[in-house]
Amino acid sequence: MKQVDLLNIVNKYSKDENYDFSGYLMYKDKAIAEIKDTNFIKSLEDNLLPIIMINKNIGSFESWLQTRVIDTHRTNSRQIRRRLSVRTEVPKEIVIKARAVSITDNYWLKWANESITYNEVRSRLSDGLNTIALYGNTIESNFTNLDISPELTNIGSFEKCWKLIDGHWYMIKKGSYKENFAEVLVSNIALELGFKAVKYESMDDGKLVKCKDFTNSGEVDFEPMFSFVKDYWEVDDSIKIIDELGYMQDFLDITFMDALCYNIDRHTFNFGILRKDGEVIGLAPNFDNNLALSGVLNDNALEKTWYSTSFTKNNYKPVLEEYSYDIPKINFEKIKSIIYETLKSFPTLENEDGFNEVVFKIIKNNYEEMLN
Question: Which of the four CATH numbers 1.10.150, 3.40.50, 3.30.70, 1.10.1070 does domain 183-371 have?
Fold first, then answer.
């Protein structure tokens, strides 16, 4: 049998997989923390630190990196990482590859002894990998080696991408027709009621939805509630924190919409606070409602909606009552009109017999449950 020199083969094809970072965590053009070998060394500007790092614990920098990494289980994320020669599955290494730049805040990484400005970094952000992010299409890309992709820090489990449209960043998300319809409908109802909510719109007859970046390209910074509580589903402590911050009314408006439209997916990454130069300025607008209604609408056997009203009764109604929330008066003819108008952008669902009646029934029943 032929002798094989395994060590020689390993050395011949091995690649340097060391992605440790040494330098500075930056906020715009200000160094706010010193980092060595991906470890937090010291704060240089306490009031500008990300919330998750504000207590300066060992490991806090790495924890922060992990909050802003693309979901590696998303099918198309593998294609993105392959295109960017990111071979690792380790969250911190993926984020470091993108300098930790995100569309929705002003933080980034600057290597030691590096001369580069925030404007230079931000100007290198490219949407050239958006078709890969949405469809896994590796042929249609317009991306150079000097570009930085915001997709490596684009969190969440659904296939999505950032796209520049008329000079503004837009999130484009792909889901089922019913999930996309729920996203747009909840947005339309919330805005009609005068709540702070992100405006979603249908694209390609409902195959996609889009919304404009609500931070306006880093004019403000978004921080998810996870940064405070470090738990995906810890809503109870999040409520107490929001109450202390003084933004309870806005949170209760979000809770009311979750109850009204049977959204079972409110977690600590899809609500949070807005900061500007370190100062907390408010609660982020209501966003990410694509799983509202769909728990019912994807199963015709659940059209009686007792699942949704039970969820409202047991999960959301107690919160609204504890904080004496004044249930808004709803014009249900207007709700019917909003459902009808929203369906025009979803022809597949518009033509589904009885679909609009089921949607209306869910909303009406949940509203009556909150009043009882």
Answer: 1.10.1070
